[in-house]
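User: Structure with iron/sulfur cluster, tokens only please.
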Amino acid sequence: MHDSNAPAPNAQTTPAADGPAPFDGARSDWTCPFCPLLCDDIDARLGGDETLAAPATRCTRLALALTRYDASDNVCSPAIDGTPATLDAALDEAAALLAQARRPLFGGCATDIAGARALYTLAAVCGATLDSLHGDALSAATLALQDRGAFFTTLSEVRSRADLLVVFACEPSARHPRFYERIASGTGMAREICFVGCEIDPAASRLDKTRARSMLADASPHDLLAIWSAIAEGRKPDLLEDGSGMATTLASLTARVHEARYAAFVIEPAALTQPHAALLIEALHRIVKAVNRTSRAGVLTLGGADGALSVNQTLTWLSGFPLRTRVSKPGRLPGTPPLDHDPYRYRTARLLAAREIDLLLWIASFEPHAPPADLDDVTPAIVLGAPALASAVTPRGAKTVYIPVATPGIDCDGHLFRVDASVVVPLHAARHIALPTVASIAARLSDDLAARAALTRRPA
Ligand code: SF4
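Assistant:
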């Protein structure tokens, strides 16, 4: 809510604590936080009006993201039911809502590692469930890992070793525009990219020293993987051939995978058919496992934008469970587990449809993802969002609090896991707008709730 007459909310924050680093107009090694590739070679330019540009980087996703930041972010005010408020007043209202809630959901969860840590602490204070706006894709990958295990590979390994890429049913550059640049940079290796169950990604067809081809683009992914899995396990293709040519094609692909020095399989859970993406990922891992009996291959899983991968990792190391976990309050009812993970029960869409929550805390500190449209009008909401989200948080039937927050890597420092979950990448502020971080807001809410709880325990 940009309102020049509003109280100056951001003056109340302490940038030293959240730490915008000095950024004097230009920086050639800035790290982009807008997709999990976390490219760290960006030549970023800061305008006098706090706008940002990266003219030398050919990335549509980055260019679009940067258009959402300007000088008006400095006067973006918190709001209660659409009326500008001070940060203290908004926090007080948010704490009151959390104190009353019995089944709060922390949704979206688009933040960095520090934000995830603070949200987990807050969830433990108020008994919340945590899910991500990319929860369906994350859960599919997690379920497959739990059921089958996995042979992972990393960006570095793909870049230095993979002479064959098998891209399964996705278009990597659509959501990760510099994917091919990242895997080819600094190497002159000749590669082959087989797009299986999809067309050739147009960005791949422009690569040097790379042969791209597509096979079985229109096949059902479930049929394709079932037959491929059988062939990888040694079944005779002629016994599986139904006249479509699928088994024969997959037999020749399997032979090609075994010939390769190192084959990298690339999947993107968000691009797979829901609700059974986990079955597809599990089947693909079975194939890769079979390949590894005699050759070398690994899987690179694309996804986890908006901090989703980082929040999932952080929650797992703190609690032992990934997202879609409910954290009980210390004074829980007898028989209630302290932590309860269920990828189906704690899915945001299901919780909203079944009206099983009585408060939504929505976190979107990167892209301006609005709270789910199916949030009903009687459930209060607290939205911690980048300033670009402000105009989307309008008055509703139930109390609605909006607090603008810093984007890690734009307004504050931070850390995120890279797409292959093997590297934690530091982010550095690119401009000087002192918005509070998700971590600082969550910590203040935790302190406020603890103080309220202590008051209620104090003897009269
Ligand atoms: S590919 Fe991703 S990380 Fe790299 S510049 Fe584009 S949006 Fe940023």
